[in-house]
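User: I would dearly like some help making sense of a protein record. This is the protein in question:
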Amino acid sequence: MDVRIPSKKIQEGIEYSLEKSAQHLTGAEACLSKGILDGAVALIEYAVEEFGRAVALREKLETGSEEVERELFSSHEYKYEKAWTVLPQELKTIYEGTFDVAVFDEAVFDVGKESISPRVRLDAIFVNYDETNDKWKIGIRADKHKLKRLIEGIKQCINDFEFLNKVT
């Protein structure tokens, strides 16, 4: 079942979502400055999701629909997917291994690629036990420069964000 939100309130929701996204990015920058990459990843993912909320609400405002999918308030993946319809895809990668995963054994070599996502956010902020490998998972791999680039990219998209048919 959808949620009915008047157009004027949808516009407010867009503005609030963009503000909240920017706040999360400020927090991510603070974490980066202290070398807390896992915390930065979590906050960046929240920023992505709030930006996705703004994108979804803008779609409703532009079509004149006041019926908003309930997933906008319950699904991390829904907001994440909406965000990446606007954010540049090349910003998703937060870590790239030195070696090719197709050639080198990941148990021995630094291989693979990590992209920002709701799952990675959880891996970044919680300690987990991997029974298959008999190891504790205590964070994620992230590159500080890629995180900075992602933050700047989202900030730019927030600054450039426009929505048509503004309700006055």
